[in-house]
Amino acid sequence: MAKVLKVCDCGSTSFAEVGQSFCSGTLKWYLSFRCNNCGKTNEVDGVDIPPELRNAIIDQEGVWGLFINNSENSMSVIFSTLRKELNLSLAEIASIRKKVPGVILTGTKIEMERLREILSSTNMPISVVKLEDKTC
Q1: Which of 128, 131, 126, 25 is nearest to 79 (CA)?
Q2: CA 55 to each of CA 24, 38, 88, 123: distance values in angstroms, whole numbers, following the listed order
Q3: Which of 6, 81, 92, 122 could hold 16 in an S-S bridge, CB 3.0 to 4.6 Å?
Q4: 124 with 116: CB under 8 angstroms?
Q5: Is residue 135 part of a domain?
Q6: End position of a domain, from candidates 60, 78, 108
Q7: Buried-exposed string 52-87: b where 16+ CB fall within 10 A, e elsewhere
Q8: What is the distance between the alpha carbons of residues 59 and 116, in angstroms, rounded to a whole number?
Q9: Is 136 within the bounds of a domain?
Q10: Does 47 lie in the same domain as 83?
Q11: According to the 3-state scheme, what is the secondary structure of the chain?
């Protein structure tokens, strides 16, 4: 869970905790805040994570990659699933195909674990790995 600074209505600044989860294939985010000055609490969650919160997660937890260690022709089901799930163009899928074997997509750990779960029915060896480079 990452921490971000949030300004309370009382004017003081405290840390809020932000994170992601997935349930039934749906990626969700949450923010939990409690002001150290006045005690006000705030809980927010949603589906489309604001870029500044996603960036805070990546800055604090690192970039993760979806790794495929196989380049068999039978991988077309993986690419068609990714195209549908991520609303990718044929050109984007062609670019991703060139990365196999290797890390084909990057993001937060939860984003990559969600994709691994979605692709688990393909019975292909797919793993989530932490990357050293923090560009995503």
Answers
A1: 126
A2: 24, 28, 22, 32
A3: 6
A4: no
A5: no
A6: 60
A7: ebbbbbbeebebbbbbbeeeeeebeebbeebeeeee
A8: 22
A9: no
A10: no
A11: CEEEEEECCCCCEEEEEEEEEEECCEEEEEEEEECCCCCCEEEEEECCCCHHHHHHHHHHHCCEEEEECCCCHHHHHHHHHHHHHHCCCHHHHHHHHCCCCEEEEEECHHHHHHHHHHHHHHCCCEEEEECCCCCC
Percent pLDDT > 90 in the chain is 82
Backbone dihedral angles phi then psi of residue 44, each to the nearest 5 degrees: -135, 140
- Dump pLDDT digits (tens) for 76-116: 899 999 999 999 999 999 999 999 999 999 999 999 999 99
Name the region of 82 (left: φ>0; alpha: ψ -120 to 50; beta: rest): alpha
Which amino acid is located at 55 in the chain? N
What's the CA gap between 20 and 11, in Å, rounded?
27
Residue numbers of the domain that contains 16: 2-60
pLDDT in tens, 20-41: 999 887 999 999 999 999 999 9
Total of domains in the chain: 2
Ramachandran angles phi, psi of 14, nearest 5° = -140, 165
